[in-house]
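User: Show me an example of a complex going from sequences to structure tokens.

Assistant: Sure. Here are the input components:
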Amino acid sequence: MTLLELDRVSYAYPGAKRPALRDVSLIIEPGELVVLAGGSASGKSTLLRAAGGLVPHVHGGTFAGELRCGGLDVREHGPAELSAVAGSLFQDPETQVVMGSVRAEIAFPLEGRGDGPAAVARGVEEAALALGIAHLLDRRTAQLSGGELQRVALAAAVARRPQLLLLDEPTSQLDPVAGDELISLLRRLNEEWGTAIVLAEHRLERCLAAADRVIALRDGAVACDASAADFQEWAVAHAPELATPAGRLFADAGLGHRPTGVKDARRALVRAGLLPDPSMPEPPEPPSRGERRRARRDAALRLDGVWHELPAGPALLRGVDLAVGPGELVALMGRNGAGKSTLLRHAAGLLRPTRGRVRAAGRVALLLQHPGDYVLHERVADEAPAAALRAVGLETFGDRHPRDLSGGERERLALAVVLGDGDASPAVVCLDEPTRGMDRLAKEALAERLAGLADAGSAVVVATHDAEFAATLAERVVLLADGRVIADGTAREILGGGWYFATETARILSGAGGALLPAEGARLLRAITTIEVP
Amino acid sequence: MRTARATAGAAFCAALVLCGLVYEHPLVLGALCLATLAAGRLAGAGAQLSRAAKLCLLAAPLVVAINLVANRNGLTVFWRLGEVPPFGQLDLTLEALAYGGALALRLAVMVLVAALFGAAVDVDALLLGARRVSARSGLTAVLAVRLVPVLARDARRLDEARRCRWDGGGSGPAARLAVLRAICAGTLDRAADAAAALEVRGYATAGRPRRARSPWSRQDLAFAAAAAALIAIAVAGRVAGIASFDAVPALDVPTRSAELALAAALVVTALAPFAARRGNAR
């Protein structure tokens, strides 16, 4: 039986001028792993919410066409009935976990179904074991990290053994380690339990290799429905912003194959005799704008032996020494808990060091992780000066309510709120994980804006897990671990030779030639082709 | 205590509270404070109990001072303040001072036991018990408890974001009001998200959960027995007229061997469950 069937489905949210879904027809069969691709506001979340019955039952709005989930018509059956067929998982783990303890959370849907105590206990145990969270069962949900919470929410979603799982960017709030673990778990559920999965995701390079099919949405309509390889072909030709770094690398290098992941790409390069030697010499580093300026002036931000020690706990920063020059673009990387956010808070003066000293050459602007936290007023125009709104391209949004803005627009508004008008340009601009949940176009636009700020003389420090973004933006990468700086070098040095902190291009090419981005990798491959095929 | 079932832990805390309500004698109340602090430490909640103790130390002088001014029934005046508007003739008495001290000790017992309860008893499990009586009310209570720390974190984040604004986020009531309004708007967002999560977990079709019978562990038994023993000792002592306390009109604080024995019995009984260490080494 077909699990999910959409027949010419159109939907508009209440009061919306444009439909969120337009004439969508598709079918999901049992056991399939389908990735939903598309930019921000392309309709991915709405499609998943429609499949789960939240649209239109919870959100209201205008619904047309026919949608059947597990044979149930969503017009006649609400989310509670559909939950027997389809489990759902959303972006923010904090608000999906409704109970105070992990055991109670996983038991909740089973108890709701009317299972007896023995069946509930067994269901909880099995779901916990399947997702590797048995050790968390007696923990309070308030004590869990984001990654752990998301796994608990997934366990609650699969506890009733639904045939279909609907996942809306479940990794967007997680660090890459937790995100990769979650994707591995989904693959296991798909392969071992046969659960069909529909996964909306921005970072396609994470999940494309596991996908049976990719459905790309654009403006609420299906733009592509194909296998992962065919999707890459389509994306390179028609939607380059959706192509993964591997796809762009091969396309830019003029290679016909469209790889779906690192393994596939490396195999194709080996077959073509094009896998470069990792010991291949790197081209000389371009002169660093920051170094030039550092030589001219004092550091814009200087941390000398900064410690941050908790009264009854570990030290979050352990004697950090760091100097950032005016105009320098620095990416701060490291796993969760490495001390990145704490360091930025010290830079901005939100925290005082237990020991050590923080000095800045002027105002330090800090953009924290959640841009929505900067929304205090009813109108965009009341949040930031007109010049600041103009600088981030929001000058025409003055009368809009800030909460009605899209994620990318809200991020720009938050940047305007922390930067203020151009008269007092900050000496240092710090951003904490600014690319969470952003599509590639929005990331590129942000990188451009930050480069503009650096050109204007501000030192820019960005804490990020996103190696692709770091490679695009930064000339210098500082790696933190356990509150210490463990590596500090050029982007090429840090992101080219790493295993985990590396771009997809660097992993495919094993860091050869210091290539981090698809364009650099393609140049390298073209050079090899030229040498080998004179 | 954390490993004991929630009902046993709650009964233990309730018994300590009952003891604090039954007696006004400073020796008994002091013993209860000590017992609760020690229990907290043994339960691994030393930090929470320390914070609560600091709060009690701050509140105690206030309670004593208020009682000194408000209580006019004592006979032993130790300081004549004369006419003090708006209180009129104000004489500070030894009895009012002693009664204020006893009230401060009683308040300390309540605060410390509340801290112990919050830190060492699984409130969620208790509320889940309430779901069997009224499924929706119980779930609402669970959800409220669950979202309190989430909203507290949201509020901290919003305040940090306010401080990061280009103009410093302002100060005074207007700035605080703006943050409060943002917190309220965020609360609505959180509520909508939680509602969606409940819907897709099948909340609308959920019935009353069935009772799960689990065997009593030695910790469950130890804390339940300690609760029963504390109540029995408190009632027996009261019936026997031990540790009576009269502050007015004249101070009468008997401190005989019976009072000392009662205080010791309460401390030993309260700490006894933590001494239960028998069991397999591995």
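The lines above are the inputs; the final block is the predicted structure for all two components together. Chain A has three domains: 4-243, 244-275+513-534, 289-512.
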